[in-house]
Design a protein that fits this description.
With about 475 residues, the chain is α+β, with helices and mostly antiparallel strands. The chain folds into four domains: about 90 residues, Uridine Diphospho-n-acetylenolpyruvylglucosamine Reductase, domain 2, CATH 3.30.43.10; about 120 residues, 2-Layer Sandwich (Uridine Diphospho-n-acetylenolpyruvylglucosamine Reductase, domain 3), CATH 3.30.465; about 120 residues, Alpha-Beta Plaits (2-Layer Sandwich), CATH 3.30.70; about 90 residues, Alpha-Beta Plaits (2-Layer Sandwich). It has 17 helices and 19 strands. The longest helix has 15 residues. The two termini are about 35 Å apart. It binds flavin-adenine dinucleotide. Flavin-adenine dinucleotide (FAD) binds next to strand 3, helix 5 and strand 10.
């Protein structure tokens, strides 16, 4: 039965959208809608009278067509794990949420071509498993992989833990099926490795955060499943030494490094304290710890190559201490430390988060300058930096000074973010390495991007979504 429409969306439109989504394809009960309206970090809370849950591309197309004809804004949503409020509707209550979770079929897996065709609502971990079951690897991997969805991964151009070797979501995408802002379906599921027939349209939708169209399916690249995996921790004195380790180990392993994660002493300390029952990986504390992972096929002994190279770095004074995982369980313990940092930081009170990238050559300088600048701005602030050193991407997070009121600290978000972002941009970096813009960084984007880039982005938006119904208020 159709529900009553609140102010903002006429009842006739709500009824039409419910009919387009079909039986079981929508939620209008305010209590059941609530989880779809709050973002992962609980910074944003929106309103809507209607969450649509289509289970086919045809239904998505019918919904978008109805939205286009009635000028009803819509917010595409996947697993709702995004960190910039991109999947949260505004508080006006005039937009519908289109959640893709029921479009969760693997349409095809081609072992010869090493591709998988997955619908947008497939949970990332389920695509990894489908590849693994076929003896292959889908390398996109991130902390939220148990709940984020392929559509959301592509819409945010997700990065994660293995970008160094396999690239981000963009590099893994061979083809897309997209419902355009007028309800037409673009079938671009070609899955070709080479296709130079003009503009690479699929890449417009990757990283667009749902502002240009709704991704309903994708052809994704798969890789041979590695026969050997070696995981290690290496403690270093500073970021310069970390860079030396990155370059040396990459070369020594024959470029078989798939992850080079970095954890500051404070970040690792939080993880040890809150997530590892105090079990630290080394007898002493060190300013920085690297988590290194390497993969190889069958053949020469990767482990001895890694041990020898790390030994050389210890002898040369670049590494203070190192441990190579002796078992899968030990490797998992190492990854658990790294992946539990965000949650552990949350247990230390308020945190202000930045997701920055700077050129590798300036990473050490950035770390020094940023710490001095934020400490000058707010004495006692605790820098909790960690991230993907191999990709030049730091989560330059700040924890509140001990004893400071949390709300007062969080009120400093914009002031401290401006300091970190200005420094990032001055060094030729990016204020969003992998999380996107959403609503959180929209104003910052306009502040720091050259006007010509903003104008080009607006031109693309106008061309593909002239009425501005696709995820309004996000990115631009
Ligand atoms: C613990 C944790 C760890 C994380 N680690 C990482 C990390 O290492 N690297 C990283 O990059 N991110 C990370 N993230 C952020 C987040 O998981 C990613 O951004 C993820 O790709 C979002 O997917 P989602 O399905 O949850 O998308 P949502 O949060 O639902 O949506 C994100 C954006 O994509 C749009 N969107 C969603 N689905 C579609 C679709 N089908 N078509 C068009 N637009 C769509 C939404 O409108 C929104 O703008 C992490 C998050 C958490 C909670």
């Amino acid at each position: 039965m159709a529900s009553a429409a609140p102010a903002g969306i006429p009842a006739s439109v709500v009824e039409r959208l419910q009919a387009a989504a079909g039986a079981g394809g929508w939620i209008a009960d305010p209590e059941r809608i609530t989880p779809y309206l709050i973002d992962q970090r609980k910074r944003y809370r929106g309103r809507t009278p209607l969450v649509l849950l289509p289970d086919t591309t045809a239904k998505v197309a019918a919904i978008v067509k109805a939205c286009a004809e009635t000028r009803t804004p819509l917010v595409p949503q996947g697993g709702n794990t995004g960190l910039v409020g991109g999947a949260t509707p505004s508080e006006r209550g005039d937009a519908v949420v289109v959640n893709l979770g029921r479009m969760n079929r693997i349409r095809a897996l081609d072992t010869a071509a090493a591709t998988v065709t997955a619908e947008a609502g497939c949970i990332l971990a389920s695509v990894q498993k489908a590849a693994d079951d076929a003896g292959l690897l889908f390398p996109l991997s991130l902390g939220a992989e148990g709940s984020c969805q392929i559509g959301g991964n592509l819409a945010t151009n997700a990065g994660g833990l293995q970008v160094l070797r396999y690239g981000s979501a963009r590099a893994l995408t061979l083809g897309l099926e997209v419902v355009l802002a007028d309800g037409r379906v673009w079938d671009g599921l070609r899955g070709l490795y080479k296709d130079n027939t003009g503009y690479d349209l699929k890449q417009l939708f990757v990283g667009a955060e749902g502002t240009l169209g709704i991704i309903t399916a994708a052809v994704l690249r798969l890789f041979p499943r590695p026969a050997q995996r070696v995981t290690a921790l290496a403690a270093v004195a500073d970021v310069d030494a970390a860079q030396t380790v990155l370059a040396t180990m990459r070369a020594a392993s024959g470029d078989r490094m798939n992850a080079c994660e970095i954890m500051s002493e404070r970040a690792l300390g939080f993880a040890v304290k809150h997530a590892a029952k105090g079990a630290a990986p080394f007898a002493a504390n060190h300013p920085w710890t690297l988590l290194l992972e390497f993969e190889a096929g069958a053949g020469d002994e990767l482990r001895s190559v890694i041990e020898n190279a790390l030994g050389g770095l210890i002898d040369a004074g670049h590494v203070r201490d190192a441990v190579v995982a002796a078992s899968t369980a030990q490797a998992q313990t190492m990854w658990h430390l790294r992946e539990s940092i965000p949650g552990a930081q949350g247990r230390e009170g308020g945190s202000i988060k930045h997701d920055i990238a700077v050129p590798q050559a300036r990473m050490a300088e950035f770390v020094r300058s940023a710490e001095a600048a934020v400490t000058r701005a707010l004495p006692g602030v605790r820098v909790c930096a960690f991230g993907h050193l191999g990709d030049g991407n730091l989560h330059y997070n700040l924890s509140q000074p001990v004893g400071m009121d949390e709300a007062l600290f969080l009120a400093e978000w914009d002031r401290l973010a401006r300091i970190v972002h200005d420094l990032t941009v001055a060094m030729g970096g990016s204020i969003s390495a992998e999380h996107g813009i959403g609503q959180m960084k929209r104003d910052e984007l306009v502040r720091i991007k050259p006007p010509v880039e903003i104008e080009m982005m607006r031109a693309v938006k106008r061309a593909l979504d002239p009425d501005g119904i696709m995820n309004p208020g996000k990115v631009l």
